[in-house]
Amino acid sequence: VQLVESGGGLVQAGGSLRLSCTVSGSSFSFNTFSINSMAWYRQAAGGQRDLVAAITSGGSSMNYADSVKGRFTISRDNAKKTMFLQMNNLKPEDTAVYYCNFFPRRPDAWGEGTQVTVSS
Questions:
Q1: Per residue in 10-24, pLDDT tens?
Q2: 47-71: pLDDT as tens digits
């Protein structure tokens, strides 16, 4: 399964960004996306790749890291094979490369990620 992240960029503190994660490949890949929980992860420079938010296969249940609760919203559109992360009230500590993957993560499903930089 190939996952492609997009939507990152440079934004001032307090600003917003919307990240997207799309699935490319075969019908197997599309089906795999639709029936699995998915998540966003992020890795700051010199840090570990941490869970940011997760969503169940049907989109009915979401979980968030404490640091982003109330500011970030995860969602998905299985018909479009796409997952989103709406990020509001961004803070400099949100600066990181953001990745999508399954939940739990699969080592072979990491994409290139998308860089988010928040200036103070």
A1: 999 999 999 999 988
A2: 999 999 999 999 999 999 999 999 9
Q: What torsion, rounded to 10 degrees, do the Cα atoms 104, 79, 100, 6 define?
A: 180
When pLDDT is cut at 50, 70 and 90, the band that residue 1 belongs to is confident
Distance CA 57, CA 12 (A): 33
- Give which of 25, 19, 18, 31 is closest to 3, Cα–Cα: 25
- Torsion angles phi and psi, residue 56, rounded to 5: -70, 170
Q: For position 28, what pLDDT does the model report?
A: 66
> 55: helix, coil or strand?
strand
Determine contact, residues 89/98, Cβ cutoff 8 Å: no
Which tokens in the block code for residue 93?
């500590």
Phi-psi region of 117 (alpha: psi -120 to 50; beta: other; left: phi over 0): beta
